[in-house]
TrEMBL record:
Highest taxon of the lineage: Eukaryota
Gene3D superfamilies registered for this protein in UniProt: DnaJ domain (1.10.287.110)
Organism placement in taxonomy: Eukaryota, Viridiplantae, Streptophyta, Embryophyta, Tracheophyta
Organism: Noccaea caerulescens
Keywords linked to the UniProt accession: Membrane, Transmembrane, Transmembrane helix
InterPro entries found in the cross-reference section: DjlA_DnaK_co-chaperone, DnaJ_domain, DnaJ_domain_CS, J_dom_sf
Protein name (database record): Chaperone protein dnaJ 72
Length: 188
């Protein structure tokens, strides 16, 4: 997974304006038009870098996408480091990355395992909510509701027609009289 903060060269606490400034600087540096006359490998590298920068900006400039990315990248770090929280995106504990054990050390009982479970629950909830609000799901739900309504209307109308044509008799009484008529015909 690409670290969007690292791509733009900003800190995780960067403001929207800092993200925007970093994007503009990197976009000018790697824009494909700027490298149109460069050798093929330089053009390809610049295009790839420009796409990475654009994707990073798209995610980090939108508050909802940024929060989702931060939650996902934190849980990725937790998985790669075996349950300990790490600022190192590569998952190793050497070099500049520092591992902080299984929690933040504030004594709240909020461990990395709880954080990962919460993140998984919220991402499942979000994906379920997004599915339930898609156009296809809502159309299918409306179709199912229409079919149920049609069955209920047909059932009710059948009962109403029966009562209109056979006033005073129930279905059971009518069946008994039909059986009696058949038995009388068989005798005679």
């Amino acid at each position: 997974m690409v670290d969007h903060y690292q791509v733009l060269g900003v800190a995780r606490t960067a403001t929207k304006q800092e993200v925007k400034d970093a994007f503009r600087k990197m976009a000018v540096k790697y824009h494909p038009d700027k490298h149109a006359q460069s050798p093929e490998h330089v053009r390809r590298n610049a295009t790839v870098r420009f796409k990475l920068v654009s994707e990073a900006y798209e995610v980090l400039n939108d508050d909802l996408k940024r929060a989702s990315y931060n939650a996902g990248s934190d849980s990725d770090c937790l998985r790669r480091t075996g349950g300990s929280y790490s600022n190192n995106p590569y998952g190793n504990s050497g070099g500049s990355g520092r591992a902080y054990g299984s929690g933040y050390g504030y004594g709240y009982g909020y461990s990395a395992r709880n954080r990962q479970a919460t993140s998984n629950f919220s991402s499942r909830f979000e994906s379920t909510f997004r599915y339930l609000t898609t156009r296809a799901f809502l159309l299918n739900l409306a179709l199912a509701g229409g079919v149920c309504f049609a069955f209920a209307a047909i059932d009710t109308s059948g009962e109403t027609l029966w009562k209109m044509r056979n006033s005073g008799k129930s279905f059971e009484e009518t069946m008994e009289s039909i059986d009696k008529t058949k038995a009388h015909k068989d005798e005679g």
